[in-house]
Amino acid sequence: MKKIEAIIRKSKFEDVKQALHDVGIEWFSYWDITGLGKSTEEQVVRGQVFKSGYIQRRMISIVVRDVNMEKTVNAILNSAWTGETGDGKLFVSDIQETFRIRTKESGPDALFNK
Predict the structure, then answer these.
(1) How many CA atoms lie within 13 A of 95 on its CB side?
(2) Which of 28, 10, 109, 11 has its CA nearest to residue 73?
(3) Do 68 and 1 contact (CB within 8 A), yes or no?
(4) Kind plus residue range of the DSSP H or E element containing 29
(5) How high is the pLDDT of residue 35?
(6) What kind of architecture, by CATH, is found in domain 2-110?
(7) Which residue ranges make up each domain of the chain?
(8) Which residues contact 88 (CB under 8 A, 6 or more apart)?
(9) What is the dihedral of CA 71, 73, 74, 75, to 10 degrees?
(10) Arithmetic mean of pLDDT over the chain
(11) Which letter, b or e, does each residue of 53-74 get, where b requires 16 or more Cβ atoms within 10 Å of its Cβ?
């Protein structure tokens, strides 16, 4: 199992959500975040100047079976991309074990309803 965490532009969240749904990922956690990056490039949006370090971000966290990792990563990469500085980051890490509290199932079976 893999944990995929993505920091994306808040403005791209709906695109990413739809792309994940299109590849069969129907459940994930997300929250609004702020952070400070190394880049200080300025962008002009609707006449206002923004520094790319202050673009609103959203963190997405998903745990998937190994077989779904590649399609999930590709869905996020393709839908979150703008080509501009500040598109975000994506991290993949191993999950050692998963448990469903209600049924006490463990492993990949604990990730989804049957």
Answers:
(1) 22
(2) 28
(3) no
(4) strand 29-33
(5) 76
(6) 2-Layer Sandwich (3.30)
(7) 2-110
(8) 6, 7, 8, 9, 57, 80
(9) 80
(10) 88
(11) eebebbbbebbbbeebbebbbe
- Rounded to two decimals, the pTM is 0.82
| The Cα angle at residue 105 between residues 24 and 114, in degrees rounded to 5 | 40
Shortest CA distance to 12 belongs to which of 89, 63, 82, 61? 82
Q: What does the pLDDT read at residue 26? A: 85
- Six token digits for residue 22: 């299109």
- Helix axis angle for 69-80 and 13-22, nearest 10°, is 150
Residues 6+ apart with CB under 8 A from 53: 35, 36, 37, 39, 40, 86
As given in the structure block, the two tokens for residue 71 are: 């399609």
Distance from C-alpha of 30 to C-alpha of 12, rounded to nearest angstrom: 13
